[in-house]
## 1
Amino acid sequence: MGGHCLWDGTLSPNDFIASADDLTKKWMAINPNLPQWTWIPCQRMDVSCNAEGYLALENMYQLSASEVNAPTDDENYSAEEAPFDNATLIQSYNDDMHIYDFHIVYSFSYQVPVLYFRGYRCDGHPLHLCDIEKDLPPYSSKIRNESKWTFMTQEEHPYLCCPWYTLHPCGTSDWMKLLLGGDLPSKNPDMLHYLSAWLSVVGQTVGLRIPLELHDKSI
Amino acid sequence: MAESPSTSSSPSSERAGKILQFAPFQSLVDDGFWRRLSSLKLDTLGIDQSPIPITGFYAPCSHAQVSNHMTLLAESLPHDPSLRSSPTEMTRGNRNKCPVPGILYNTNTLESFHALDRESLLKAEAKKILEDIFSGKVEEDSASLSRFLLISFADLKKWSFRYWFAFPALVLDPPATLLNLQPALEAFNLEEAESLSAACNEWRNSSLTADIPFFLVSFASSSHVTLRPLKDWEACQVDGQKLLFGFYDPCHLPNNPGWPLRNFLAFISLRWNMEKICFLCYREKHGLADLGLSLVGEALVSPPQAWRDPQCVPKAVGWELKRGKLAYRTINLAESMDPERLAVSAADLNLKLMRWRTLPSLNLNVLAGVRCLLLGAGTLGCQVARMLMAWGVRKITLLDSGRVAMSNPVRQSLYTFEDCLNGGDLKAVAAARSLKHIFPAVEAEGIKLAIPMPGHPVPAHEADGVLDDCKHLQSLVASHDVIFLLTDTRESRWLPTLFCANLNKIAITAALGFDSYLVMRHGAGPLGCMSDSSNKVEDMSTVVAQVETSLTIGGDKGQRLGCYFCNDVVAPIDSTSNRTLDQQCTVTRPGLAPIASALAAELLVGILHHPNRIHAPGEIATSIMSNSEQPFGILPHQIRGSIPQFSQMTLVGYSSNSCTACSTTVVSEYRRRGMEFILQAINQPTYLEDLTGLTELMKSASSFKLDWDNETDDDADV
């Protein structure tokens, strides 16, 4: 009957906020033991408006693959012996614990969510993409190499104004259209679950362990 | 409250017990801190080396396997460094960010960084802690017990930062001894434990107390637990309650408390004259008090009497170790901070996106590695250079003998008004400079050189200079992969064409008429590749052998495509009476140069991606809109266009055996006689025509002319 309105795979800013809330709750219900998503409202011109913001998942610890840590710092400096203090515990240093932060940010120009992420060592030194790739599980690199939808680049975080890694959003609306709008094009797609669906795909690319239940709309 | 803990094997004597060992603080510096320090240094501080008050942040341990850190963020640095005058100004934190005061000594040179007297800096901070203890400041602002020190050297040219934290701890002599230590769950009964958890969670959830890391835990006799700020000490004494001294413990270890306890114990014993101190190492999980992770213990502390002397400078430890050794740390942020690097990755990103989305066969490495020589830095040279940079080409050499004239900047896109002043800068040099201004990572070089031209005889005293120029040009051709012929005369194109034909280098010509243009790629050279430069004079037999080989090659691959001169039936000296392009034609419609230059660059990209490269056959555009197998489309030989018609066509022309520049005759003669041959061509106007038999050809052509004249009288066929 007439032309049905074909959904183009994008979502509106309001839908993003609603879907973010839904994702946060779902995640809490499924993964209470993992770090949680937090909504960070944004300051624009000193006005904090909850109407704009992003989702943050921070301090995901990841044991890196055993690193034969080639120290990039100059080890020429002759290290002195620490003065003996019997009240100081001698600790084993763990250079191989990496910390990851993930942000889900809405892109006004593409009208889709974009995943920003970064990794760093325990002392705060940022990880380069090649180091991050070593941390990712094998299925993730397979996806990144084979899929024409995934392209990792370094971009300026729109709110924090420093470089983060991101998955380029220009293909997102295309595959979201397939993912959510595929079966019944005439029916309006379920916008509330947009982010959960999106994250279940995108998360795999960056090795974020996404539980299957996230797909389940009954939760 | 269990008075004598059941689980530990505490000796009966109060003085026995092992030495209490504290887990040192670990630092975590977010790269935003370094960014902010860099801009502070560059914009505001300059060479000022005064110490800067900073704020660290930490929170109680929230993970059973990982300790929490003393974290520095961008906001750790003061918003306005003039607030140095009010160091008590503290950043308000939240439950995950307890603010801790610190001080930063950032030096201007590496030498002064190494020259800092670390011992006295540490002692100075320790003295401040001692003073705060006695003055009562700790009760007001307990986080000052954990004040820290940071020394750094920011190398803002290389974007590397050397830094070293110290977490000053007053050293007790004799050291504190541990009487017992156990998980908090085991130290209390169920009721007490529940009440304690509730009290802690309340403390943690209130914005008034969430970021206060030291507190009193008061056990009322009815097992009702409350958390009280340190300044309520007196009030708590009155009730005769059992008191525990609690603090946010960043450490996760089950057998050791974290560093903040060290100064806390010193404070408690000095301020309230206690020797036996019960403490709570508060740790949490998922934002709630975790009494399994948290520890309760009892320590014996006796501070040295000397500390009570106001002049005393206490002994302190606390420099952070790097992998167990006393050494500073370095972080290099050039990749994300150096603007030049950022420009490079942004430009690369653009091309990579192109490759990812539409052109998977785009070979960016080839483009980045190809060495391009541009002969001529005028309207064509400037524009070709820019187009090449847009394609990711990084190695560009420009050659021109002239200076920037006042009329140049409007048409020649690399020059500005400033380049014209004082007689005008050398074009090649100004062009290379301009390329670097646009994109600092380009490897651009400008060379002042006049290309020797045939038919322009040189006086004897200049012969050596011209010879040097020829050799110089030849070596430039040899050391590049692609040569663009972008000069404004026909004659100046001859020598480069010969060199390219001899060395089998990719040559692309662009030439402009008043309102028409030609862009073409030269065919491969006639004799195949030379193993070394052809300055060597060869004997006839070698040349003959090469000619024979080339004929075979020609046979296998089809005929060679022509060069710029192949189509001409005149030698390159006669530019007055024939209507070819380049007739001293420096007046052209402005739109032509950009169009022709863009086409020249696109043509090069096509060649570089073609499997046969210089040997690729010439293709013409067909009216059939076919989905070409080649992702870059067809690879034409010649493109001729005109603006009056807004039209363009692709043509193919084959090499001519009589070509004065690329024919077998000419190239082999050059190989045989080298520079001598070139000089003869330069000095003797008709030499090339004679050599190639063009003279003969013209004679026979004019002999036909008469017949044609007769025939035009007939008005037979039209």
## 2
Amino acid sequence: MGSPVSNRAGSRGDFLVNFRAPWNWTGKSRKNNSRQLVCQGQELPQPDAFVPLEMLSSSQSYIGQILQPTYNPEFLSHSSYADSFDEEPPLLEELGINFDHIWQKTLTVLNPIKPADGSIMNETDLTGPMVFCLALGATLLLAGKVHFGYVYGISAVGCLGIHALLNLMSIAGVSYGCVASVLGYCLLPMVVLSSCAVFFSLQGILGTSLALIIIGWCSLSASKIFISALAMEGQQLLVAYPCALLYGLFALLTVF
Amino acid sequence: MNPDGGAASKRRLPAASMASPHQLFDDTSAGALGRGYAAQQPPAAGSFLAEPVSSFAVAYGTTLASQGKEIVDRNIDRFIPVTKLKYYFAVDTVYVGRKLGLLLFPFMHQDWQVRYQQDTPVAPRFDINAPDLYIPVMAFITYILVAGLALGTQNRFSPDILGLQASSALAWLIVEVLATLLSLYLVTVNTDLTTIDLVAFSGYKYVGMIVGIVSGLLFGKTGYYLLLSWCCLSIFVFMIRTLRLKILSEAAAEGVLVRGAKNQLRMYLTMAIAALQPLFMYWLTFHLVR
């Protein structure tokens, strides 16, 4: 197949190969690299110039601006995935979707009485919330209501409002992503409600009481997670009330 | 072929001999791949970051983003005094419960003076007489939602109506606060009432409005009128007792009648502000209850 590198119009690929190659390989391969440079006969920087550049690229990459914000040591335990995916990192790992974390957070939401761990919200994970929003839209669709726009609009405005309120009420600030993530996770019981709406109409005593219970469940979980993440004491009901208003809007969408 | 595609294909190549001069990379990493997996992962995705120009661009981008955030924060701070607002939201559940009780039954409360701590008023958490913004904001939003609910039960609901209700209530609130500010200015009162305090006091009437609408939904017109008049009376007394301490001079506030045009004017002003509340309460709710 010849050397695809030398046939390529730009020499960018060479830079990539040669810059990336010494990054995690042993010093032995670095010497081979310099041999390759000579063989290809192109004008490339000296081998010792690689060292500072590779340090720069490695430190830049470790900051994780492309991937999840924090370098999670749990990723190391997933190295066995590499073998089952033809020796390339799994797509989920690259995207930063960690199913174990998603499952843990979902369990925290589903059990509103158990006190939450304050550190679970350290990583802003928006895949779970996106899945739940889409599930809500899908179950609404099954009931004959095309309300995707309303769902997204209400969640965006609600996240903004709760973000502003929590920043004013708590001593430590909270980021928008964290608020969106928590509110999205606590939308799960609302998906349950809207799937009930597919089978029987909720406009009645039973439907109203079910909706009220689900709203209470959602807002209690959300306020529990916010309280533990932001260390606000004596304010759980105060945080639960605006969340209840927000989920009440979703319930209005579902019921009517 | 883009560089990333090239990189992926290079990883998939089986262990080839190292002798070929055209080979792009050494395959010694077959074992190192699993070991150094986590280490390899970032450069795999960020291989284009390895170019010197790209790294500078990334660094510039991050500083630009943080600078942008700083500019936004500074400008927000200019228009909305965030630290001052934080004082009004320093509440807890006990305070909110007691304040709601006070708003609906202010007749037994004796001491209406706000406690001070070295010239600054104490946070609402520690003093029930201090005004807060949590209750007015929540009451406003709840009022809009309850109005939507009331209209929904009468089959007059559409999402635009919610927006209409919200904007009209907000407009009346702004008009009321501006009128109060203007009259306070005209009467030349020396008071420490800030604009945010006035917004807070004007927002307390939404609690009574919500009670009225809910009772109207549950018990019909009689329930609505009954509870609304009770809430009007409560808010009237509440406003008079709270504003008396702020607007009137010290002597008149303690109950001693002081003759003089100034104090009479201030008393009339206080009563006018307090009388506005029931008026607005009725005006903003009567069309919701049929």
